[in-house]
């Protein structure tokens, strides 16, 4: 019987389900896309059902179940921590035991998909091993240095490994409470971004400040090649503050979402002044703390990567873990030549561990020949034209159906009139980025387009940049980088002659979080960008996620609803097009306010 492996990130932030067979990836989706809870940590029942539906399979067809957690990993390090911190340690152990007991119960999977009498082997794959496997086995590298960095998973915060063939040899682990990810998250919370997953906001804010606090932060977090990341645990208190399992749970689940505690002591406030409240205005101090935090993060990130490359002797590099979503740091790795080639899984965060667990079981444990490189991220749900048409008719709005050629031409006309277009095409993206199938698109050269998008649709902080999508072959002409970025996880400097022409996607520090597009990755999206370039001389479009302070839209009905309640101008839903009556007054008002 051919293997069919179901990989799960379950009861942890960004829970997900991934299905793989002997040919490689089949389907992948985060639970949040379906249950509409951002960063959901619910058991991924609906995601399981959906990947099986996409594959035309049932739970009875699954031969192997791979959980991206191993409760027995790093047992010695856990016991050592408990011995030194008995009250905190036992509380942590109880929390994790309760979660792991629920996670590792195979019957839970069967209940989730309403099936019984299944026959599959169950595997537990250590968290960071799953991270590394997700990037290595989805790359085309035969040998690679591997780095995984995040807050913590299975009592590890940094893992370095050497990958070769079907083997992953672990060379280093950093154990909590020391963690580069916790350092960054704590500093994010200190300046008021205290919800789970808001680190990207600080990366954007950093461009508006100066690293004036860098020397202080260099004393608080360091890298030692033997010991790993070292953090001043009298200042950063993500574990030592956990005194009560009912009220101080780091990573606790409440209604399927992660709750973040305060992660710093009064010592940090003595150094930098009072922590910013979430609703308080941002000050120059906050900008400067963001810049200093980002710079110190980059310094240590680079040290870890250098160490991994030197220790493994490999110039090909795979990166993973939540910290690998820091595109500015990744840009430095590439532009400063720390490696020759870099691969980062499209779901580099915890959602991707479901893919990594499945990869590790399929290739390392079952010995299946490695599949092709995962060079595109469209592994989620798609809808037929008939399904979309049913949603269109049910909406009661007057859509029209266009040919492919007319769809591209009509969209270009909208761009050239300064209009904002919702773009819902093909299968949805796997991972946190909208990559041209569940996107909001616009002209990057239109005056004040960034402000217009924020005011009319996104309703988000004005310091956050929008992303450019570019034809892969034109990347080096416009940005100071040539390494392809299909998953929008590297930030490059914009060349001076393009900065004004790309005003809506050129960030404060003259950078862009670029997505490169090849035609074999996404034909329609590529042809749209190419046609826009031929018409305007700019082979770039502005791309942001199709949502409004919610998970990216998953269904045609959700796309229509988002379009209807925002001031989006037009919607391309498969071959169907709807354009609202001109709303020039609203647009003029936004431009005037700027």
Please provide a written account of the structure:
There is one protein chain. The protein is of the alpha/beta class. It has 21 helices and 23 strands. β22 (570-573) and β23 (576-579) form a beta hairpin. α16 packs across α21. The protein is globular, with a radius of gyration of 23 Å.
Report the β-strand fraction as a percent range.
15-25%
Main sheet characteristics: 9 strands, mixed
Radius of gyration: 23 Å
Please mark out the parts with pLDDT under 50 across 5 or more consecutive residues, or reply none.
241-251, 584-594
Overall form? globular
Overall helicity: 25-40%
Distance between the termini: 63 Å
Indicate the mean pLDDT.
Answer: 91
SS summary, helix count: 21
Based on secondary structure, the structural category is alpha/beta
Counting DSSP E segments of at least 2 residues, the number of strands comes to 23
Q: Name the strands of the widest sheet in spatial order.
A: 15-23-22-16-17-21-18-20-19
Brief account:
With 594 residues, the protein is α/β, with parallel strands linked by helices. It is built from 21 helices and 23 strands.
Search tags:
594 residues, alpha/beta, nine-stranded mixed β-sheet, five-stranded mixed β-sheet, 21 helices, globular, disordered C terminus
Question: Secondary-structure blueprint of this entry?
Answer:
Elements: E1 4-9, E2 16-21, E3 24-30, H1 31-35, H2 45-55, E4 64-67, H3 75-84, H4 86-103, H5 106-112, E5 121-124, H6 127-136, E6 143-149, E7 158-164, E8 167-174, H7 180-190, H8 199-205, H9 214-220, E9 221-224, E10 228-231, E11 252-254, E12 257-259, H10 266-272, H11 284-312, E13 316-320, H12 327-335, E14 341-344, H13 353-365, H14 385-395, E15 400-401, H15 404-416, E16 421-424, E17 438-442, H16 449-458, E18 467-471, H17 475-478, E19 490-493, H18 496-499, E20 511-517, H19 523-536, E21 540-545, H20 556-565, E22 570-573, E23 576-579, H21 584-593
Parallel strand pairs: 1-4, 4-5, 6-13, 13-14, 16-22, 18-20
Antiparallel strand pairs: 1-2, 2-3, 6-7, 7-8, 9-10, 11-12, 15-23, 16-17, 17-21, 18-21, 19-20, 22-23
């Amino acid at each position: 019987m051919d293997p069919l492996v179901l990989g799960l990130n379950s009861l942890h932030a960004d829970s997900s389900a991934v299905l793989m067979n002997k040919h490689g990836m089949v389907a992948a989706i985060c639970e949040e896309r379906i249950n509409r809870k951002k960063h959901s940590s619910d058991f991924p029942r609906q995601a399981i059902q959906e990947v099986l539906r996409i594959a035309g399979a049932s739970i009875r067809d699954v031969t192997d179940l791979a959980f991206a957690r191993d409760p027995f990993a790093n047992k010695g390090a856990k016991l050592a921590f408990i011995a030194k911190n008995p009250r905190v340690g036992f509380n942590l152990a109880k929390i994790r035991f309760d979660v792991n007991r629920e996670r590792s119960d195979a019957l839970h999977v069967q209940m989730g998909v309403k099936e019984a009498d299944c026959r599959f082997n169950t595997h537990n794959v250590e968290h960071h091993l799953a991270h590394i496997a997700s990037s290595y086995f989805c790359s085309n590298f035969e040998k690679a240095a591997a780095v995984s960095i995040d807050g913590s998973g299975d009592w590890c915060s940094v893992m370095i490994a050497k990958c070769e063939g079907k083997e992953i040899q672990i060379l280093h682990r950093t154990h909590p409470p020391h963690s580069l990810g916790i350092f960054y998250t704590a500093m994010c919370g200190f300046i008021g971004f205290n919800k789970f997953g808001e680190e990207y906001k600080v990366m954007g804010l950093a461009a508006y400040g100066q690293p004036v606090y860098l020397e202080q932060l260099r004393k608080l977090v360091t890298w030692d090649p033997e010991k790993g990341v070292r953090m001043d645990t009298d200042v950063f208190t993500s574990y030592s503050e956990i005194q009560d399992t009912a009220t101080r749970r780091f990573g606790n689940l409440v209604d399927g979402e992660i709750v973040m505690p305060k992660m710093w002591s009064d010592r940090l406030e003595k150094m930098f002044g009072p922590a910013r409240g979430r609703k308080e205005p941002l000050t120059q101090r906050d900008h400067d703390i963001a810049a200093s935090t980002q710079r110190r993060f980059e310094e240590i990130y680079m040290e870890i990567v250098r160490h991994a490359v030197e220790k493994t002797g490999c110039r090909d590099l795979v990166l993973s873990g939540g910290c690998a979503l820091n595109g500015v740091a990744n840009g430095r790795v590439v532009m400063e030549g720390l490696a020759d080639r870099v691969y980062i899984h499209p779901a580099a965060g915890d959602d991707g561990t479901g893919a990594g667990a499945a990869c590790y079981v399929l290739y390392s444990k079952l010995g299946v020949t490695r599949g092709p490189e995962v060079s595109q991220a469209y592994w989620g749900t798609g809808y037929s034209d008939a399904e979309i048409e049913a949603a269109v008719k049910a909406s009661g709005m007057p859509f029209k159906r266009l040919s492919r050629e007319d769809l591209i031409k009509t969209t270009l006309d909208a761009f050239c009139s300064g209009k904002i277009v919702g773009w819902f095409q093909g299968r949805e993206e796997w991972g946190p980025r909208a990559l041209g199938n569940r996107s909001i698109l616009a002209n990057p050269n239109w005056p004040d387009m960034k402000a217009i998008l924020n005011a009319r649709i996104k309703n988000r902080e004005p310091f956050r940049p929008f992303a450019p999508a570019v034809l892969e072959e034109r990347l080096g002409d416009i940005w100071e980088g040539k390494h392809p970025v299909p998953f929008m996880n590297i930030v490059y400097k914009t060349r001076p002659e393009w900065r004004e022409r790309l005003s809506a996607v050129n960030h404060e520090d003259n950078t862009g979080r670029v997505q490169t597009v090849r035609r074999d990755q996404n034909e329609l999206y590529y042809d749209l960008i190419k046609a826009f370039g031929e018409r305007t001389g700019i082979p770039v479009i502005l791309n942001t996620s199709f949502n409004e302070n919610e998970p990216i839209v998953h269904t045609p009905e959700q796309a229509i609803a988002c379009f209807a309640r925002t001031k989006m101008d037009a919607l391309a839903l498969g071959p169907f097009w709807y354009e609202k009556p001109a709303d020039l007054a609203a647009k003029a008002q936004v431009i005037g306010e700027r």
